Amino acid sequence: MNGLTNKVAIVTGAASGIGRAIAGRLAAEGSRVVVADVSPEGETAAHAIGGLFLPTDLTSRADCARLADATIAALGTIHILVNNAGIQHVAPIAAFPDEAWDRLLAVMLTAPFALARAVWPAMAGQGWGRIINISSLNALRAEPQKAAYNAAKAGLLGLTRTLAVEGGPHGITAHAILPGLVRTPLVERQLPALAQAYGVPLERVIADVLLRGAPIKRFIEPAEIAALVAFLCSDEAAAMTGTPILIDQGIHASI
């Protein structure tokens, strides 16, 4: 994609899953990628793509600032920020723990804000920047017992629009990607239990349970999210900003 060669990109939560796919795709397009993750597996992920691993605790504003500073010290600037890291806690409202609420909001809403603020001077100074926030279909359609996740993902939409409005005059664009059901190890491990709980064959769990009302009855592959990120970071998407972009098996269209 045009415009990605020699760009410096930070991808959070890039040790595995969607983040790792995004980091790999940006590296394949010629970007220099920083893998930011609390897991030591980030070292392996960074090595595989010729990137730089910077261990980061996204619950810490200080660590977010250090991530930006260390990236600039090592690679000279920052062009692309992908806020991908996410965690989950499932509990009803009446029993939802304060510590779980605080941690989810810290990782999935406060950290994207803190990182955007930290990279802003570099992006504005060079007149070019791309901020991609990985939100979720849950931003538009809440699931029960996921209060913090739903709230954080919806909050990312408001943050994205603000970044777009303020960033446009500086050459900074911002987007929120709203995926539906993506193939990840966490989801795949749940399939046998779901098959037993709903009394369906394992091979029918995706179509008959997880994606029962969806027009497209298959997982989204992490590589598909990564391809969309690459496009939004490219010169071809320079006139797009502030947009919530659904890649959701058509679920929202069928509501």
Write a structural description.
46% of the residues lie in helices and 15% in strands. It has helices spanning 17-28, 41-49, 61-75, 98-126, 147-167, 185-198, 205-210, 222-233, and strands at residues 8-12, 32-37, 52-55, 80-83, 129-134, 172-179, 243-247. It has 8 helices and 7 strands, in the order βαβαβαβαβαβαααβ. It has 255 residues and is of the alpha/beta class. The protein has 2 domains: 8-182 and 220-254, NAD(P)-binding Rossmann-like Domain (Rossmann fold, 3-Layer(aba) Sandwich), CATH 3.40.50; 184-218, no CATH class. A 7-stranded parallel beta sheet has the order 3-2-1-4-5-6-7, with helices on both faces. The chain is globular.
CATH class label of the largest domain: Alpha Beta
Dominant shape: globular
> How many DSSP helices?
8
The termini sit apart by: 34 Å
Number of strands: 7
Beta content comes to 5-15%
Describe the oligomeric state of these chains in a short phrase. single chain
| Fold-level CATH name of the largest domain | Rossmann fold
List the strand order in the largest sheet.
3-2-1-4-5-6-7
Secondary-structure-based class equals alpha/beta
What number of structural domains do the residues give? 2
Helical content, roughly?
40-55%
Rg (CA only) = 18 Å
CATH A-level architecture of the largest domain: 3-Layer(aba) Sandwich
Whole-number average pLDDT?
A: 96
Q: Which regions are unreliable across 5 or more consecutive residues at pLDDT < 50? A: none
Could you state the order of secondary-structure elements as H and E?
Answer: EHEHEHEHEHEHHHE
Q: Note the main sheet.
A: 7 strands, parallel
